[in-house]
Design brief:
The protein is mostly helical and 218 residues long. α1 packs across α2, α2 packs across α8 and α3 packs parallel to α5. The protein has one domain. The chain is globular, with a radius of gyration of 16 Å. It has ten helices and no strands.
Amino acid sequence: MPGLGIFVVPTMVLVVGDARQSAGWLLPVLCAADIVAVLYWGRHSAANKLFSLMPWVLIGTAGGAVALNWNDSVLRPMVGAIVLVMLAIYLYRRLRPGLHQPAEAGAIPYGITAGFATTVANAAGPVMNLYLLSKRLPKEEFIATGVWFFFIINLTKIPIYLWHGLISPASLRFDAAMVPAILVGAATGRWMVGHIPIRAFEIAVVVLTLLSTLMLFR
C-alpha cells in the first residue's frame, strides 16, 4: 500500500531511540519486504519509467552518504521540506492540466531528492509516489514500478550503512524477528490495494504523503 511505508520511519526512531541508527535497523526490514513485493508485483512493472531517473538517484544517494555525517536534527526537517515542495508542485500541476513539463526535466529534482531522502532517512516514499503519480500509470504498474525502484536502491544502500556502522548484530536480530510481521503486512496490503478504486487510490497516496511527511518534522 504505497504511502503507508513511510510511517515506519518515525516509528522505528521511537523504538531504537536514535534517529540516525534507526535507519540502519530499518533497512533490512525494507529489503525483506521488497523481496516479497517483487515476487508478487514484479511482472507489472513499467521499468522504462525509471531509466531517466536512476542516474539522478545515484547522485542523490552519494550526497546522502556524505550527509549521514550531519546531525539528524538537520537532516529530517530538510528531507521533509523538500518533499512538501514536491507535493505542492504535483498538486499545482494536477489543478492546472494545461501546464506541461517534459518528463526528462522532471527526473532531475525527483531523482536527486529521492536518492538523498532514502539514504539519510529511508524516506523516499513520498517523493517516488509523486513522481509515479505524475506518470499517470495504472494502479498495478504504479505499485510494481515503485517496488522495483526500492528493491534496487535499498540494496545499493547496504554498503553505505555498513560503512557508517548503522547495521549491527543487534539490529539484524531485531530485523529477523520482524519477518513474520512483514509477511502478514504484505498479505494485508495486497488485499487493500485490490479493494480500492483508482481515484480513491490516488487521493489516498497524496493524503498519506502529506501526513507522513509532516511526521518527519517531529
